[in-house]
Automatic annotation (TrEMBL):
Protein name from the UniProt record: Indoleamine 2,3-dioxygenase
GO process terms (BP): 'de novo' NAD+ biosynthetic process from L-tryptophan; L-tryptophan catabolic process to kynurenine
Keywords of the record: Dioxygenase, Heme, Iron, Metal-binding, Oxidoreductase
Record-listed heme b binding positions: 407
Listed InterPro entries: Indolamine_dOase, Trp/Indoleamine_2_3_dOase-like
Taxonomic path: Eukaryota, Fungi, Dikarya, Basidiomycota, Agaricomycotina
Pfam families, sorted: IDO
Amino acid sequence: MEATYLPAPHHILRLAVSSLNDVFSTLKTYTGPESAKARSNAEFEIYTQTGFVPRSPLRRLPVSFDFWERALERAHKDISLGEDDTDAAVSKRVSSEKWRENIRKGPLLSIQSLVGDMRKLQRAHMVLAWLVQFYVHSIPPSSSKSAIVVPRTLAIPLVTVSKILGIAPILTYADTVLWNVAPKDPDYPISAENMTFQHLFSGTDDEEAFYTTSAAVELRGAEILQIIEEYHRLPNLTEVTTVAKIANDLRRVATIIAEISDIVQSVRAQCDPHVFYWAIRPWYKGADADGPDSPGWVYEGVENTKSLDLSGPSAGQTPVMHGLDIWLDIDHKLKQRRAPAPSEDNKRADHGFMERMRRYMPGTHQEYLRYVESSPRPIRDLARQVPALREPYNTAVAALKKMRDAHIRIACLYVVTMSKSTPASRKGCPMIAMMERMKKEESSSTKAPVRGTGGNELSTLLKAGRDATQRAMIN
Ligand code: HEM
């Protein structure tokens, strides 16, 4: 048999290097900024192991704030959801009203002593924001068209703390997940296996599982934040070894996104969609959840209360996904000319959603996103210029698109499908169940869109985000 002569290994290496060098000789000089300008994640309160989750949350405010802390403790016992008409919930109507009266008549505490201590300010925001939701949503629905008044004892300190933290004065993703998570065993750091949540509205395992899923995404996403940080520190983007590192990191990011996608889907095992929709989600509603014509909320004693950002919390406020989107240059606002052209539904979607969600993040995290955005070395442009990076870049984008596909299925199951179901309390009575169904069918025939907690048209919004991701692919 004729012998086949293969080039020696050092020949292969030389060939590879020379073809890469060809690429670089045609490549415009693309070194980006000096690494000295790169900022460290720590500056933005980002931790190596936990990302945007603080390593050690504060469990309680100083004693002078016991009025708030005690009210929160009592809320878990005394309060039920106003729109829940089960016997158990109705039996708490009197204690709920007493609790609200206590809030209204309580002291107006000054937050001055908390200024300068980030953990205390975060805890204050969290406690006050939870109290506001407990207050508003424990009120039974009424036919009155007047706005809900959030008492000054909560409204004034919450707005003051929020201004200092640079975050919206309402319950946010930071309050339900980032600052709510604590280590189950305090002797060990927070990890996917060692976490618990300090506050729950419904007290159900389903609610805890919902937060656990989001926090697990945050922890897994921490590695992406490190990769972005390293990218900004690379001294020279045109070196062969640097390109190899970027390619590797993009592939690594694709793997992490795939794992995040699995985590998001794992919510189904422990959080029942029906419990989510009827017992958990109603607590999240913000002032605009019932549409633009609803009377909304008034923050007593606060100037320009109408101009406050008062949408409910959403995982759309997670800075991890925003950071990733910005780094990969996903064009949610449809500002770039990319193929395929946006569909009519895409054009109709709320393009400002992601940008708006940023106002519900802590100021330091918003600053991080602005920093990534202002990067003078956008990775998509680099991948367009360096052929060796195209496939790894596209792999990362494809993983993100796949994640968004999976997330749409979850959101549809938990929100769209459940919006057509009947609450458990009325399930027992076939007559009421039938009336409920007819009401739902009637409202769906008038084509009222299902809205997210942020008051936006859900399926159009999520699909537009998925399609914007797809459009980032480099052909
Ligand atoms: C039961 C599980 C989940 C449900 C029912 C759900 C539902 C939703 C809904 C309704 C929206 C539309 C925005 C709005 O709130 O108005 C949304 C957006 C979003 N969610 Fe989720 N979500 C779930 C889990 C997660 C998890 C675990 C993450 C990751 C941390 C996540 C990340 C996002 C992001 C980043 C958006 C903004 C839109 C986008 O990036 O595509 N979601 N979600």
